[in-house]
Amino acid sequence: MISQSIKNKHSNNSKSFFDSAPVFFKKRYQVSYSSMVSDKLTSEPPCNAESDAINRKYRYWRLHVFIGIYVGYTAFYITRKSLTYITPVLIQDLGLDKTDIGLIGTLFYFTYGTSKFISGIISDRSNPRYFMAAGLFLTGVINILFGLSTSFWAFASLWTVNAFFQGWGWPPCSKILANWFSRTERGFWWGLWNTAHNLGGAIAPVALSFFVVTLGWQFGMYAAGIFALVVSLILLVELRDIPSRMGLPSVGRWRNDQLEIAHEQEGKGLPLKAIFFKYVISNRYLWLLALCYILVYVVRIAISDWGNLYLTEVHNCSLTRANSALSVLEIGGFMGCLVAGWGSDWWFGGNRTPMNTIFSIGVLLSVAGLWLIPVSGYFVQLMLFFLIGFFVYGPQMLIGMAAVEYSHKEAAGAASGFVSLFAYFGAAMAGLPLAFVMESFGWDGFFITLSTCSFLILMILLPLLRSEKASIREGFDQKKLR
Fold first, then answer.
1. In angstroms, how far is CA 392 from the centroid of its own chain?
2. Which of 88, 352, 393, 395 is at 20 to 30 A from 463, Cα to Cα?
3. Which domains does the chain have, with CATH numbers?
4. Alpha helix locations (H) across 124-250?
């Protein structure tokens, strides 16, 4: 057997990163190469599904839970980024400076990352239907209260509380995607869901700018909050718990997906504490992904939070034009998520690191282009924002998905929360620390920091890429011998 051959081959060698990874980390590549040819990207079950009734129920709820998490996370994203879109007005009208905005951002991201980790652990034992709806309702209330405030410390306090409830959004979504969609199709569906970031990020700047310009910045916050309250009620209708708690077979058995079945069987029957420490805390692969996520989020959050200010200060753009560039950034991210997810399924058989590496090269080149290309026309800037969005959202999505896939099936929320904890440490670095860099070194310091982070992303991915290539090659060699 492939697994026995690989075990014998490595038994006399010192442990590599791949050898010390969880068993499923190895199994994934032994199965996935042979699956690359035979498995097609489809949400249809195989012909041996248990019954027509189960098939109908599966198809119905897969569609509805996906719609629920998509619309719900769009609302989460709008209420998370609403402050960004009114930042230039707060600086102009209330006398806030970059350090004030940076401090609010840092407090938000530290709290948000911590909340995602804690809520990830809780969500693994909770019903995502109620967990996600409650978080969205409360973040909507906070946005409305923000619009009723005027002092810096009220802003900072409310936005920190908002960060805590924002952390209730991602883990339920990752739990649903991990349990309703199987391995050989998950890249497409996760990528499609991840575009909820971009839909929210594309709609919100234009829509909220309308309220800010015509009625005042307070009404921008009111609009975001009311939208979240309405969508939280929709979630109660659209979302459901995992298939096994609805009397359905696991998605791996329903689709006869061998990769998914192997994942479902890994560590089966272990107590919760053992699952958490073995497949999350002691998982070296997750630690490497977490380090990479820090850098990805420095770049992503820096561009999305400071990009409109860069355009207004350096290129003299109006608020509407500057926020429109952020919409273009999100449109690029929308397309990048789809290409990254579909490509990792179709071209690399469910292996995420090769596509991660390709997109990381694009991040480095597009960030350097925004900094160094001498042409300063508005449409050139829009094109560069589009490219940054396209490339940066690929790793942002793939790393989160890979974390779930390399952990235990019952620890999807904890695994995604673990890497997200580090991601938002990176996001926090894009707040106050990056504001200090800009105060001292200007926008050149800003872009030098982002270019350095982009380069380091590639350096961290290389060990993973080598491990995957070696693993796939071994599985392919064994496949030829059978």
1. 11
2. 393
3. 17-481 (1.20.1250.20)
4. 128-147, 152-166, 170-180, 183-215, 217-238
Nearest of 198, 214, 203 to residue 324 by alpha carbon: 203
| Residue partners of 97: CB distance under 8 A and separation at least 6 | 91
pLDDT at 467: 63
Q: Which two tokens stand for residue 206?
A: 């234009």
How many angstroms separate the CA atoms of 467 and 375, rounded?
41
Closest CA to 166 of 107, 240, 101: 107
Q: Count other Cβ atoms within 10 Å, centred on residue 244.
A: 11
Tell me the one-letter amino acid at 182. S
User: pLDDT tens digit string along 219-230?
Assistant: 999 999 999 999
Which residues, 6+ apart, have CB-to-CB distance to 303 below 8 Å? 329, 367, 385, 388, 389, 392, 450
- Asked if 143 and 224 count as a contact pair (C-beta separation under 8 A), the reply is yes
Residues 20 and 418: their CA atoms lie apart, in Å, by 19
**Helix and strand totals (H; E) in the chain:** 18, 0
pLDDT tens figures, 35-93: 433 343 334 444 454 578 899 999 999 999 999 999 999 999 999 989 988 888 888 88
Distance CA 454, CA 439 (A): 22
Q: Which of 257, 267, 265 is nearest to 22 (CA)?
A: 267
Contact between 371 and 441 under an 8 Å Cβ cutoff? The reply is no
CB–CB of 388/363 below 8 Å?
A: yes
Euclidean distance between CA atoms 103 and 433, whole angstroms: 9
Distance CA 121, CA 188 (A): 25
CA 415 – CA 119 distance, rounded (Å) = 11
Report whether 359 contacts 340 (CB < 8 A): yes
Encoded amino acid at 380, one letter = V
Q: Return d(Cα 9, Cα 459) in angstroms, integer.
A: 28
To which residue do tokens 């006869």 refer? Answer: 256
| Residue 438 identity | M
Taking a C-beta distance cutoff of 8 angstroms, is the pair 423, 127 a contact? Answer: no
Tokens 């890994």 sit on residue? 266
